[in-house]
Amino acid sequence: MNAGLSLSHRRGGALLPLRFAARELRGGLRGFYVFIACIALGVMAIAAVSSLASGLAEGLAREGRVILGGDLAFTLSLREANADERAFLERRGIASLAATMRAMARAQDGRAALVEVKAVDPAYPLYGTVALDPQQPLAQALAYRDGAFGAAVDRTLLVRLDLKPGARITLGAATIDIRAILTSEPDRIASGLGFGPRLLVSEDALRASGLVQPGTIVRWHYRLRLPEQDSTDTAMRAVMAAARAQLPEAGWELRSRANASPALEQNVERFTQYLTLVGLTALLVGGVGVANAVKGHLDGRREVIATFKALGASGRRVFAIYFTQVLVLAGLGAIPGLLVGAALPFVVAWSLGPGLPLPLVPALHPGDPALAFIFGLLTAATFALWPLGHAHDVPVSALFRDEVASERRWPPPPYVAATILLGCTLAVLAVELAYDRRIAAIFVAAAVAVFVLLRLVAGLIMAAARRLPRPRSPLVRLALANIHRPGALTPSVVLSVGLGLAVMVAVISIEGNLRRHFLAALPDSAPSFYFVDIPAADAQAFDAFIRARASRAALERVSRERRARRKFETVSGSALGAAR
Prior knowledge:
This protein is an alpha+beta fold and 580 residues long. 56% of the residues lie in helices and 14% in strands. A hairpin with a 4-residue loop joins strand 2 (94-107) and strand 3.
């Protein structure tokens, strides 16, 4: 039989481990279901994270001009562009104006609501479409007829003022006829946070309202659509450079379609960072499951391993057989993970549809599943090497004796070195290919620290159980003995349970922090009231008005420059806030 094995080795060559691994699997996958589930979970998480991140990045790149409202945007505050500035824009392409401000809209019964006014010219929108209910051309909805300017409004405004389409409101000195409900606005994401529902009117309506006065906070957005032959990134950078060089005193804020919405990109970045942590966590948990599954499988195959070695198989041959088996099963487990992970962006886009607040473009990127597959195989190999290495130089007699008297020992040095090398490779890939390398590096360092800490905790538990007095109850005595006996499962149990709890706490904490950030939760010191867009010339009169009616209130006035830096203004206590 020994000769037969050697002959098979000569004939089979490198395929011999695969042949024996296939024979081992003929009896089914019993004992490997947890292994396959762990690999599938880790691969699915990595593939899903990579696919979602790629879809979001592609969506931002593809929809950048729609989100921005043009290829380039030039924004001015408190003043309109002069003739030279308008001429500069019109020479470069098609220009469109959109003016935004906050104002009070009043119904005929006297009720009022704060609205975000957006006044547009006939060229709006340069990209995308405005969806109205009922459907009609935007120019028709905003036109002046029957003594009133038209408007499209958010449904929220109708609810607040208890109105229906066709009702009339006043905006300053202008009469506004609500002719449609605004259901979709292509550049809404780039507008940032709004304090009220949208009121979309024409530029003529805004000027007729009389609200555009010196000192009124109006932001004038000039969007530019470049000719198709000059719409490359190089051409955009050239136009921006020319604007700075030829009009250095303009003071406008320049933005291109590459950074259409910095706030949105920041949220997408945080979301991707969270998904990266989830993927790395699933990979780590899957690796622990792989190690436990391989160890359990080898413990159940002692007789088979002993038979191999008794028939002349070398330790390397035994290792190669079971290592091949691990890689084959890892590949099989990775397939469902790849399918689910690659399909997740399509499922998200299909299920959420237009309600999705992020520009997700689902697509199949071959590099993402390939990366997830490599991570799955590396994880399986890294966490399987240590238990597989135990079977290399162990004599047949020791294998049989392990049934009753297992010896604690390390694998041979080559397998320890290979485990460390693969572990470092996996860590480096996780850091280098992560969306945020700093967070990935912190995660890897924390994972190593958790492994070491939990192993120390397991050792302390075993030492404490060994030194406890022997109880009289046989059941309790056997239970304590099983905690510290040679080959006890205490390290594996402590590692699995401790790591699971650590992962759960970390993911819940990160998810809670992100949710609070997305919701922009206000601190306890938020003001009881806030007033916006008060002209600087009226600030003193407004202060006197507040003091006369709330003499004990804390009042803080935040200027436009300070508000631009802080974005959200807050004052302490039960305060009144005012912005000028």
